[in-house]
Amino acid sequence: MNNKNVSLSSVISDLINHLNQLPGIGPKTAERLAFHIIKSPENKILSLADSLIKSKQKLSFCNNCFIVTEINPCNICTDEMRDQKSICIVQDSIDAYAIESTNNYNGSYHILNGYISPINGIGPNELTISSLIKRIEKKPPTEIILATNPTIEGDATATYISNQIKSENIKISRLAVGIPFGGDLDYTDPKTLTQAFNSRQIIE
Amino acid sequence: MQKREYLNFEGITISSYEYGEFDKIFNILSPHKGIITAIIKRIRKTSNKNFDYIDVFQKMNFKASITDNFYIIYEAKSVETWFERPIKLTNLSSGNIIAELTINFNSINENNNYIYHLVSKCLKWISNDIFIFTLVYFQIKLLLAEGIFPEINICLNCNNKIQPGDYLLNLIESGIFCNKCSKKTKFSSLKLLEQEIRLLKHIKNTEYDNNLNINNIITKKVELNLYKKLSTYIKFYTNKELKSEKILFSSLNK
Fold first, then answer.
1. Minimum-distance CB partner of B244 among A119, A151, A190
2. B227 touches chain A (CB under 8 A)
3. Contact residues for B161 (Cβ-Cβ < 8 A; gap 6+)
4. B125-131 contact pairs (CB < 8 A, 24+)
5. CB–CB contact B87 A159 (8 Å)
6. What does the alpha-carbon distance between residue A106 and residue A81 come to, in Å, rounded to a whole number?
7. Residues near A76 by Cβ (< 8 Å), separated by ≥ 6?
8. Percent of chain A, pLDDT > 90?
9. Is A185 left (phi over 0), alpha (psi -120 to 50) or beta?
10. Dihedral of alpha carbons B58, B64, B66, B72, sign
11. Strands A171-174 and B23-30, bridge-based pairing
């Protein structure tokens, strides 16, 4: 934290320091948020504090799929209307929420809680891959969708998992990569365009 | 008000991490300025005509604005990509070891251009599934470039020429002792076997080109043991563990 906090009240400095520890919040944003909190009405801030405390007290990870949930096992894992024979593997709970918002997938999920990143000391053992393998052995699915990010590390994670769970009875797929809706071909980089070409579909 | 400068440079992306909501910070190895740490804004959210696909282990032409030694990349065009999809864990962790060693030894000196081409060459070999030999080659060439390659031709104590055989490598003195003198060097030593010393000498004196074609004169076991010993030697100097190493070994065992 920079030196100007020395002249601030220790309460403010403390608040700025705590906010600064959150992902994506730099020192400047932490300062802005802190002063916003100070200026906000008390009831709003008490409500925010209450949400923070409740999120820690009431939320946990589902024992089956590791999504953030209030009940265990989670609503998705116990929903009989969903296709429990299909598992979509994502890096974090937030990715599952993004897919849920499409209303296009009706299967279950498995949250890895990260991705393989050797340079950060994160290998397969640090993720929930062994739980996934046990889950598959216990109740073999018919389909697995690997929905990790299309980065080098996301791709290495997907490749590792597909090698671990390879089976003739399981259809394993990876999310398509290509041009986004509303995107301009002219603005698409060569690698994405090549991938889009390779994954082109026949119009029926 | 700080003066803004502009720089065009070629570089290899060796590591990255997410920053803020949409941005990424890259460590980019350059031929003349060592490692440049630069931010690319909104790279996780939108496609932009000024940017080709950018990830680690890519050689790219960059355009950056610099204020107070803070680099912001505003254009990046691909020159060479090594790791084609799907990527195996062994390739990724080997590439990460090259990245970690490069970062740990980052110094700006007359050998920067050599290290730049060495990293480029070694990433290519790794993408061709040559792992441990590449890592040993990289370790040795890096030690030579940094001036801390151990003395392996003469005994550090009596200066006699070292004959073929097994010897102790003294970490503190950075060299080997002949068998007569080895009793004086029991602390912080590694035992180097004859074949490992042969491989050390061979790589020290050989500069392979991009299209590596190694004869199978050396067994994988010798390569791996030498890698581990040189890794201990390097750790002694840098005082830094390589996080990728454990993951590489577990992927090799599978």
1. A119
2. no
3. B153, B154
4. B125/B212, B126/B82, B126/B91, B126/B94, B126/B95, B126/B98, B127/B82, B127/B83, B127/B84, B127/B91, B128/B212, B129/B90, B129/B91, B130/B212, B130/B214, B131/B90, B131/B91, B131/B94, B131/B248, B131/B252
5. yes
6. 8
7. A62, A65, A67, A82, A96, A108, A109
8. 75
9. alpha
10. negative
11. unpaired
pTM of the predicted model as reported, rounded to 2 decimal places: 0.87
Q: What is the pLDDT of residue B240?
A: 93
- CB under 8 Å to B26, separation ≥6 — which residues? B13, B15, B16, B37, B38, B39, B40, B54, B56, B73
A165 burial (CB, 10 Å; 0-12 / 13-18 / 19+) is buried
CB contact under 8 A, A159 and B57: no
- B163-203 residue pLDDT tens: 888 888 888 889 988 888 877 666 678 889 999 999 999 99
Angle between helices A10-20 and A27-39 (to 10 degrees): 130
> What pLDDT does residue A101 have?
96
Dihedral-angle region of residue B47 (phi above 0 means left; psi in -120 to 50 means alpha; beta otherwise): beta
Please give the single-letter amino acid code of residue B175: G
A175: tokens are 């999310």
The answer for B188, left when phi > 0, alpha when psi is -120 to 50, beta otherwise, is left
Question: Are the C-beta atoms of residues B135 and B227 closer than 8 Å to each other?
Answer: yes
CB contact under 8 A, A121 and B247: yes
**Contacts of residue B47 in chain A, CB cutoff 8 Å?**
180, 183, 187-189, 192
